[in-house]
From TrEMBL:
It catalyses: Hydrolysis of proteins and small molecule substrates at -Asn-|-Xaa- bonds. Coiled coil: none annotated. Pfam families: Legum_prodom, Peptidase_C13. The active site is at 156, 197 (nucleophile). This is legumain. Belongs to the peptidase C13 family. Residues 355-457 form the Legumain prodomain domain. Its EC number is 3.4.22.34. GO terms for cellular component: vacuole. One of its GO terms (biological process) is vacuolar protein processing.
């Protein structure tokens, strides 16, 4: 009995020892801690006051990494930078990512601002392609075969695409860049955290399973992601996004040499229960300690500065709003509070305008489908049936089976069917699945789909 106990103790000690050495810095003992450096790319893809939360998330992410010892030189930050000093910001020069109101703007180092925050620059920074960069300070990820890369992106999204302030990035472009970087040994491992509506569709069946990339999305391909801290006592728009603040508030306080990537996934998936947090790619990465991707130092001071403990999960859930409703919900709250007739009218007009834009986007999609089959349908009835069919969601609507077709079609749609895409693409996002339906059904006919879009939208730009 006693000898079994001793044996167990011995086994436990050895196991603990091997776990310990694995997390230790390679320079001291040459354990399993990988050689190489850690690089990070953190991006807010939006601008505009109602998207306050994306830049607050990004600034907070910068501090999370820095507090855990990632050198500033290895963190590349892209954010439009129109929020901290926005005329609507009563707290000039400050950004808050939680109702503890710790200013996360202070000390943040921004490499790409304004219109330099775009898909082209993002891809070139990711690939380490300096010659392709336009604007910003020109910095790129200078990683090599032994290095690890952490990417965090937060913004609006739709089936197979995410937004930049004046642009979109498709699942094809993103996964081509990841695949290229993997092939060209730009990293040993890359972890990608993505906050956006329908963000699962950026990776599902598109991210090659055999490359060294592990991705986590805030939502599956069919649903909204959620803003949080939307009702806050300073009257600001949502301060954060639910998935984003859940991983960051976890990383704020944890010892990242102990918690693994997979453990954080589990925690965040459980807490972010308004949507389905998904994981893709190289699952083996889940056994790696988080420190490999977010830094190894303890962040006691940072945690204390951030209020010490995580905010109440219940509060985050109670103040959560689907991303695409953040603006209208905020306007409705303002409407309920105002006594000023003029302001009331301005808000009502804006609410009507948003409603109209969404309706127009839907109508345009319907027309595109109609035009597509106009010449072929034997009868009006048949065309109508098709229109109904493609306007409905099916099991594959959120899965980009033909990234090439999807890429061409959504870019054509955005360019031709939306007069002011930088402003208004987000109102069309709920209907992008229709274009994906067409590609899934008619992949060989991407040209015909584009023709239909051109015919429908060239003369009468609708949105
Ligand atoms: C790097 O940028 C240059 C200039 O835009 C471009 O021609 C080249 O294709 C880019 N390389 C990669 C790997 O994307
Ligand atoms: C990824 O790159 C490899 C070459 O390294 C290529 O064979 C493969 O087709 C690419 N996959 C995708 C999905 O682009
Ligand atoms: C999400 O979690 C909260 C708190 O644990 C719980 O009250 C709520 O019922 C859960 N919601 C769903 C949809 O599971």
């Amino acid at each position: 009995m006693r000898s079994i106990f001793v044996l167990l103790l011995l086994v436990a000690t050895v196991a603990a020892g091997s776990v310990y050495s694995r997390y230790k810095s390679s320079s001291s003992e040459g354990g399993d801690e990988p050689d190489g450096d850690l690089w990070a790319l953190i991006v807010a893809g939006s601008n505009g006051w109602f998207n306050y939360r994306h830049q607050a998330d990004t600034a907070h992410a910068f501090h999370v990494l820095k507090a855990h010892g990632v050198p500033e030189e290895n963190i590349i930050t892209m954010m439009y930078d129109d929020i901290a000093h926005n005329p609507s910001n009563k707290y000039k020069g400050k950004l808050f990512n939680s109702p503890k109101y710790v200013d996360v703007y202070e000390g943040v180092k921004i490499d790409y601002k304004g219109d330099d925050v775009n898909a082209e620059n993002f891809l070139n920074v990711l690939k380490g392609n300096s010659s392709g960069i336009k604007g910003g300070n020109g910095r790129v990820i200078e990683s090599g075969p032994d290095d690890r890369v952490f990417v965090y992106f937060t913004d609006h999204g739709a089936v197979g695409l995410i937004s930049f302030p004046n642009d979109i990035l498709t699942t094809k472009s993103l996964n081509d860049a990841l695949n290229w970087s993997n092939k060209n040994k730009r990293f040993a491992d890359l972890v990608f955290y993505l906050e956006a509506c329908e963000s699962g569709s950026m990776f599902e069946r598109v991210l090659p399973a055999t490359i060294n990339v592990y991705a986590v999305s805030a939502a599956n391909g069919k649903e909204s992601s959620w803003g949080t801290y939307c009702e806050n006592d300073r009257g600001l728009p949502c301060l954060g996004d639910l998935f984003s603040v859940n991983w960051m508030e976890d990383s704020d306080v944890e010892d990242l040499t102990v918690e693994t990537v997979g453990e954080q996934f589990k925690i965040v998936q459980k807490e972010t229960n308004k949507s389905h947090v998904c994981h893709f790619g190289k699952m083996k990465t889940e056994t790696d300690p988080l420190s490999w991707f977010q830094g190894a130092e303890k962040s006691v001071k940072h945690a204390r500065r951030n209020g010490g403990l995580k905010s109440s999960l219940q509060h985050k859930l109670d103040t959560a709003v689907p991303s695409r409703d953040v603006e209208t919900e905020h306007l409705k709250r303002q409407l309920a509070m105002t006594n000023d007739a003029d302001e009331e009218e301005i808000i009502r007009d804006r609410l009507d305008e948003i409603q109209m834009k969404k309706a127009t986007a839907r109508r345009t999609m319907k027309s595109v489908v109609s035009v597509m089959y106009d010449d072929e349908a034997d009868t009006l009835l048949e065309n109508n049936k098709r229109r109904v069919f493609y306007m409905e969601k099916n099991d594959e609507s959120s899965i980009v089976n033909y990234p090439e077709c999807h890429h061409k079609v959504v870019h054509t749609y955005r360019r031709l069917c939306i007069a002011n895409p930088a402003e208004d693409m987000e109102y069309a996002m709920p209907y992008v699945y229709v274009l994906n339906n067409l590609c899934n059904a008619e992949a060989g006919r991407s040209h015909d789909i584009m023709e239909a879009i051109i015919e429908q939208c060239l003369e009468k730009t609708l949105l």
